[in-house]
Amino acid sequence: MYHTWMRFFTPGPAHHRLGLVCLGVGLQHGALPPVGPRVLDHHTAVVISAGTGRYLHPDGRPTPVTAPALLWLTPGTPHHYAPDPATGWDEGFVDFAGPATASYTELGYIEPDRPVVPLSDATAPRAVIARMARAARLGNPLLEVETGAAVHELLVALRRARADLAPDGDPVLRSLARDAFKPMSVADHAARHGMTPAELRAAVRRGAGCSPKDFLLGIRLGRAKELLAATELPIAAVARRVGYDDPAYFSRLFTRRVGTPPVRFRALQGRAVPGGWSDRVPDPADRPVLRSPGRRTG
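Now predict its structure.
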């Protein structure tokens, strides 16, 4: 016996231009029938939260599936999978498409060459799928935008839940972030970790979806923006604070990556704050209650 619930959608051209659209969502459990062999023209993420089964590759090679796990079904790739007929499994699936899938694939969030991905915990991805299912109610005027936005959230939740990644960040990435403002090359960072540059590149690509250079650059430019917006430090001093001894090189790099020169960014975003901004992430629950002028209490 098994239970199946699913809904399918047809987003319009404007929704596709948002980057990602949800084409369908489903929640199923039990001894479900086999799927395939078939080939899709869109992406599907199948989150297995309980049970076991197997996935058959195009060459017929089987791979065991043990929950929690993710099945990546990518466009144009033949696939065939099924839960164990004796025990079944519990799954949630999301069909999606859009131009943003190319960037998510480049960043490592979607893995076409890895159709079976072990997860450390399926709770967060299943919670996103459950919200998508609730949004699929008939007559919801926000359906396409709400479910499309949730696809982005699902991809992040799946990335965070991968069993081969630490949920709180890889130690190598934490170390790189800590040393990001030091005048060190990628080779220097690699040597500090006892790695070759190629090994460091592979580790950062696996954990952050980008090269060590881009990972460090993102941190440096983010801090530079904060200093430009919150202080009156000269550009040369900002450059030194974020690891660049040559202010002219820093200005060229900032302009190329940000799209505007540091001086222009400061003019647009400056928020002079005595003592600088706080590094503490605020908790909305700690926000003080603002009272209207002239209102008396007590």
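The chain has a mean pLDDT of 89.
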